[in-house]
Design a protein that fits this description.
By secondary structure, this protein is α+β, with helices and mostly antiparallel strands. The chain has a domain of about 80 residues: OB fold (Dihydrolipoamide Acetyltransferase, E2P) (Beta Barrel), CATH 2.40.50.320. It has 1 helix and 8 strands, in the order αββββββββ. It has a 6-stranded mixed β-sheet, with no helix packed on it. Strands 1-2 form a two-stranded antiparallel ribbon.
């Protein structure tokens, strides 16, 4: 009897965790299409979309990083420019060197053709501070 109850509780917890991961990975997009009645031309304007997930890989020499929206989803390329802002959870701007693999983040982007162009990356954890200290000891002997 107790094992059945425990299995039901664990199954409910797993279902809730799956629903939460799916909800966090949801994307929202707003697209505005306007038609000019005089010329007959249509204009489509896409606004920024957000997606929460995990940065899978980042190579400083490239123009993209790999981002995964859910643990079961395959990673996708997200392209960035020098205008792309990276901020910590408090909203302070940080450098690209703060990006690490398996770092949770929220990405604000727009689609340009078949590319996903990132406007802003909000890290979910503060970046780790790595301090490199070097000391030099000089010994002189007197005759």
């Amino acid at each position: 009897m107790k094992q059945t109850r425990l299995v039901k509780i664990l199954a409910a917890g797993l279902a809730c965790a799956t629903a939460l991961a799916t909800a966090l990975g949801q994307e929202t997009t707003t697209t505005t299409t306007t038609a000019d009645p005089v010329t007959g031309t249509t204009t489509t304007q896409a606004t920024t979309t957000t997606s929460a997930g995990t940065i899978v890989t980042y190579t400083p020499d490239s123009d993209y990083f790999m981002f995964r929206t859910a643990p079961s989803a395959p990673p996708a390329r997200y392209y960035y420019t020098r205008d792309t802002a990276i901020v910590d959870p408090a909203g302070r701007t940080v450098s690209w060197s703060a990006i690490r693999p398996d770092m949770p983040a929220t990405v604000y982007y727009t689609r340009v053709g078949d590319r996903v162009l990132v406007r802003k990356v909000v890290l979910s954890q503060p970046p780790a501070v790595i301090r490199h200290e070097e000391t030099t000891t000089t010994t002189t002997t007197r005759p």
